Please model this.
Amino acid sequence: MGIRFRPYQPKQLLMLPPDLGEWVGEGHLAHQVSELVDGLELRAFYKPYEEDGRRNSPYEPRMMVKVLIYAYATGVFSSRKIARKLEEDVAFRMLAAGNFPQHRTLSEFRRRHLKDFKKLFVQVVSLAREMGMVGLGRLGIDGTKVRANASRRKAMSYGRMRERERQLREEIHELLKKARREDREEDERYGEDRRGDELPEELRRREDRLAAIEAAKQRLEAAQREADDERGRKPGQERNPKGGRPYKRDYGEVEEKAQSNFTDPESRIMKTSTEGFQQCYNAQVAVDGEQQIIVATEVTAQASDQGQMMGLLEEVEETFEETPQQVLADAGYCNEGDLQELEARGVDGYVALGREGKRAVDVNPGRYPARSRMRKKLASLAGQVAYARRKWIAEAPHGWIKEGLGFRRFSLRGLQSVQGEWDLVCLALNIKRMSALMAA
Model:
């Protein structure tokens, strides 16, 4: 007797339209995203469409938010790849409910609402707290370098800029001389009505490069003046008024090795843990110790973590109107002013004074009283136990983002844009984390 196979009729039409929700299993992350977004307040996403007189109906903002959050939660960040998923992936099709926005539409929607994702992030964290997943008893703070949407090869040092600027000015000068000479020769040969565009086009390319270099130089010079002002240095000062050696450079003078990137000028060269020096941003998180939910985010173009701790702490206080009881951070965040501020706020801080595994750091109690007190805390058994929790609390979400989601490079450019994308990444991770905790 022959084998009887199950029916297989690919071209058979369905009598009734299918329920896409049934094609995605119960408890699937797509269902969790859909239900959670349905409970969020999305007024900011609808506001741009109020009385704008559009003839064509735009896509439903709630649907677009669901698709973007689910995409980031499953490691799909490119608008083109999201558009393909809407055609090929059942979970994406369920969330879009038969809509197929093009990649430009998805990209524009994301760009337009970058600031609004922070509001959704705050709503989701507040919801997590109501569900008992956030307690604010203990926070871990950590930063990670995320590559910018720019290449190191598109960067140039200040010294190289000055050299290339001189070369371009000489080339432009020679091209202008050549153009005037050929114009005279052609006028004599063909008359004054003939025009030639070859040389002006060549000249324009060099002038465009010269303008880009001059703009990059101005950015570096402005940044250097700002840095000197922050250090309390005044124009004309040759040495620190508090004493010490003379300054190696004049006020506002840029070091020859200082670099600026032409693709994303706000990004910086930073040392990463696995890829050496790359064009990056420094992405910061504050993570709650209860269930490792991210409760605050920040992105900076500063390679060091110095000065970032209090900004994250203030964001948490503003969101929850409550000060965390305990804060854990590595040596990158250690400075006397922030340690004193933690004490003033009544926060039980544990901030390393040096790199883990290295020799203990000597501290002058008279000059650094807060550091001296921190050293004693960390030397105690209770301090060692408390600080040991930092790594698994604060560093795990960065691992989930980079290894689990595969987010290692920003899709957008500019500090303000990457801040919005980082909020979206952390929002998606929190929802995925909450979904896993509820299913456990």
In short: The longest helix spans residues 158-190. The chain is about 50% helix and 10% strand. The two ends are 47 Å apart (CA to CA). The mean pLDDT is 82.
